[in-house]
Design brief:
Elements: E1 2-5, E2 8-15, E3 25-34, E4 39-48, E5 54-62, E6 66-69, E7 81-84, E8 89-92
Antiparallel strand pairs: 1-2, 2-3, 3-4, 4-5, 6-7, 7-8
Length: 97
């Protein structure tokens, strides 16, 4: 799904298991654009694939932001998500509260 909302963009896509329940999950990426600073704000929301329950959410500001599912980078056997921009990479992941 890709929908334009003024200067905001919303994308959603299926990804590997992000929370250890052995089921595919969903990432939602919402981007906003500031025409003055030319910066984007990206919010990445992880949801359970089978019921849409909110798992976690992170927001960052930068240019040319993108999110993608990645493999397990921290050894917890759960897929992590990389959020990148032109000069930084953020590693995001699920953590039991």
């Amino acid at each position: 799904m890709n929908r334009t909302l003024g200067t905001n963009w919303t994308n959603a896509f299926s990804v590997r298991d992000l929370n250890g329940d052995d089921k595919a999950d969903v990432l939602v990426q919402i981007e906003g654009y500031n025409e003055t600073t030319r910066d984007k704000t990206a919010t990445v929301i992880a949801k359970r694939g089978h019921n849409g329950e909110h798992l976690w959410e992170e927001s960052v500001t930068g240019r040319d932001l993108f999110a993608l599912s990645a493999s397990d980078h921290n050894g917890d056997e759960i897929a992590d998500v990389l959020l990148g921009s032109h000069d930084q990479v953020y590693a995001l992941g699920y953590r039991e509260e």
